Every structure is written in C-alpha cells, then in structure tokens.
Amino acid sequence: MDQAPGSPQTPAAGNGTPGCYRHPDRATGISCVRCERPICPECMVSAAVGFQCPDCVRGGSGSARTPHASAPRTIAGGTIARDPSLVTKILIGINLAIWLTALAAGRPLVDALDLVGQAFDPATGELVGVAQGEWYRLLTAMFLQEQVLHIAFNMLSLWWLGPALESALGRVRFIALYLLSGLGGSALSYLLAAQNQPSLGASGAVFGLLGATAVLMRRMNADMRPVVILLVLNLIITFGWSNIAWQAHVGGLVVGAAVAYGMVHAPRERRALVQRATCLAVLLAIVAVVWVRTLQLTG
C-alpha cells in the first residue's frame, strides 16, 4: 500500500514456484510426503497423511488411497480445484476494474475510498475518515491504485505469489488469507500513520502472501533462500522509499504469516477448528487495533 500523492531439483514453473515433477509447467505448493517431489493436483494421490506421487504409490507402501476413493485435499485441507489460480485471476480482475473506474471518475472517487484516519474535507466542511465511522475505507483502500507502475507492480506480484498459495491452501482459505492480510495492513497503517495521510494499494495484501509463502515453504522443507532474498529486497524498498506506507506492508506481512502458520500447521484431527480460530483471532486483533486508534482520534 503506497501513500497517495499528495523438491528443489524440479524446474521452476515460470514464477519461482516449484513445478510438478511430471508436469514442470504447472506451479504447485504441494509435495509428496515420501519423496518430497512437487506434485500438481492431477498427480497427487491422497494418503493417510498428506499426498503421495504416482511413483511412490506404485512403489507399494499400501498406505495411499486411489484417486477415486476420496476427494484429494491440499496441505491445508482445502479442496483441490481444477483451476488453482481462479481466485487469483478474479482478484486481479477486481483490482484492474476498480483502477479503471478510478481513472475515469477522477480524484473524487479516490478521495472517497482511500484510507485516511481523520481529515478535514474542504468540499463539505466536515471531518472524514475511519475515525468518523467510514470503516469501509479499511477494505476499499486494498483494491484502490492510481499510477500505472503501482497497479502493474502489485498485480504482477499477486500473479507471481497467488496461484501457488491458492493451490496449496484451497480457494476459501486463500481468500481469507488475502482479505485478512489486506485488513491487517490497513489497520496498522491506521494506527501508526499520520491521521490525515491518505494511503491506498494492494501491497499490504501482497506482503501477506509473501509472508504466507515463506511459512508454506518452511512447512514443506523447501529451499528458503529465494523467498528470503525476495523478502529482504522488498523490505529494503519499503523502508528506503519515502512514498511508501511501510505500516501497511509490515501489517500485511505479519498477518499473512500468522494466518498461514495456523492453516498449514493445524493438526489434522482438529484442522478446521484451529484454522477458523486462527482467522477469528486475527480478525479480532484487527478490530481491536482499529477500535483503539479510533478512541485516540475521537478522544
């Protein structure tokens, strides 16, 4: 979110994510529990714990189920989708549509939807902002961009990180991760930024996906060096560029990592309960931050 003016041996699948060992062009966040080779939804076979690749199943442990015995699940317990990047595409489409709408409508729409804590609006002679009850700005600012480079960088990052996470978590969990990360970024920006400083952008949510990617790769015992390098570079840019709302980036990163940890480390027998509790706890923390800041600004 920017401040408004004013197995490692498998080839990568084109976006830095491992590709299936049988279909290298298909990005996947899931690996075989026996040989640890990356496998796509078409190749994975549900086992007692996790998934196995067809080669290990033919190897004869007897612990894997046939693909038709039960619906395969992602590492987080989500349903395997035929198109593992559908939600990512929809999110990109929403961001692009709002960007084009903002270009056509001009500054009034941006001013009505961006994130601002509390500011004086000379057009109406009244105070506006989240502190004045416009809580929707915490959400709308996540989908609002202005400059071409701003929307281009955020959408390329979303396309690079989204499909692998969507494939590994499942659609519903991925949506929860994205929205909570974006709201976490908005909440920390609201808490720490100047009350009259507007900000906007999807980068809080994108940083959440970056944090979730690190957690997922660690869970899968994958090579962490690429994601660590990417994270360090992004943090250098975040704190080294004066026109970037670093609070949103840090908030999104922390929330994304926390939500992803709860999703991929939840015990199998209580997976749904732990995942829902994690998301609820994060949401309540966000609400608490917004409530405290609102009390500060309204006295």
From TrEMBL:
Residues 1-20 are annotated as: Disordered. GO terms for biological process: proteolysis. It is a multi-pass membrane protein. Gene3D superfamilies: Rhomboid-like. InterPro entries: Peptidase_S54_rhomboid_dom, Rhomboid-like_sf, Rhomboid_protease_S54. It is found in: Membrane. Residues 1-12 have a biased composition (Polar residues). Residues 133-264 form the Peptidase S54 rhomboid domain. It holds the Pfam family Rhomboid. PANTHER family: PRESENILIN-ASSOCIATED RHOMBOID-LIKE PROTEIN, MITOCHONDRIAL, RHOMBOID PROTEASE. This is Rhomboid family intramembrane serine protease. It comes from Streptomyces pathocidini. The lineage of its organism: Bacteria, Bacillati, Actinomycetota, Actinomycetes, Kitasatosporales.
